Amino acid sequence: MSAAAAPASRARTPRSRRALLVATAAGPLLLALIAVRVLVGTPMVPLDLAVRALSGEDIPGYSFIVMDLRLPTAVVALLAGVAFGLSGTVFQTLLRNPLASPDVIGVTLGSSAGAVIAMAFFQADGRTLFWCALLGGLATAALLLAVAGMGGPGSSGGADNRFVLVGIGVAAALGALISYLLTRLSLQSAGDALHWMIGSLSSSTWDRAAVLAGALVVLIPVLALLVTRLRILQLGDDTATSLGLPVPRTRVALILVAVTLSALTVAVTGPLSFVAFLAGPIAQRLAGRPSFPLAAAVGAVIVLLADIAGQNLFGGTELPAGVVTGALGAPFLMWMLIRTPTSGSGR
Predict the structure, then answer these.
(1) Any transmembrane segments, and where (predicted)?
(2) Residue 160 belongs to domain with CATH number
(3) CA-CA distance, 52 to 58, in Å (whole number)?
(4) Which helix (H) or strand (E) holds 246?
């Protein structure tokens, strides 16, 4: 028994060290990206002036650029990446499918549909638009749970695949609905809606950062409490039930947390495509095992890098972060579709 346990212990040790190294490097990397987002752009901000502006000194022009434009954008990018990374990892782990993410199964499109409906029929903006986007995401999740049957006592592993397939169908229907609604808007409203749906950090403010920060302060501890139950769920529904875990209620709770994280972020930034999809698998490859904290950090890195690239790498054209994340995520999705086995055997 001890001879068999020794190799497993030795195998876990390098992966633990690897995960610790990657997690240790993530903090300085995020700080460096925030600094780049604040300093680099048109105009460039000298480091000494940025430090003086951060310390509260009023420097004409630069204080506004640092404190009211770039730093709120960097903070919103960081928080949005964390939320999307956690949301996508919950779905991928719970549904045992790397292709399951809010982008693929229609949750972000549900939030977008809620926002576009509010624009089309109520000329909503600001706080009303925020709540409509949130309700759209939650309504989509409720529809998926009802149709896939994951909330009932008979839900099982088969419901996981059903949930993903139903989500893909719902996403297609929501995409058609959004396209129709856009034809009913005025040119200006349709342009505003399209700009929002691409996913942009250009309208980031401290108020929006506070909304995301408040949501994460509440939802991350809830998720931390549910992660232990999620680990038990990965043993299989029968085993989890025999250990006394209320499987349907746990699934619903995890999905609601993940949907709320995603929908709140979409309401603030628009649907930043594929961030939730990319963060979990990249974190797992870096650490050698699934990691929620690292997935959150990877999501933040992706959004910050996408925003920095969109603002600075295309000459005089500034691209929204959602365009860059979409360009990164589409080929990764194709690669995942190619390498994901169609059955449970093999890799």
Answers:
(1) 20-40, 71-91, 103-122, 128-151, 163-182, 209-232, 253-279, 291-309, 321-338
(2) 1.10.3470.10
(3) 8
(4) none
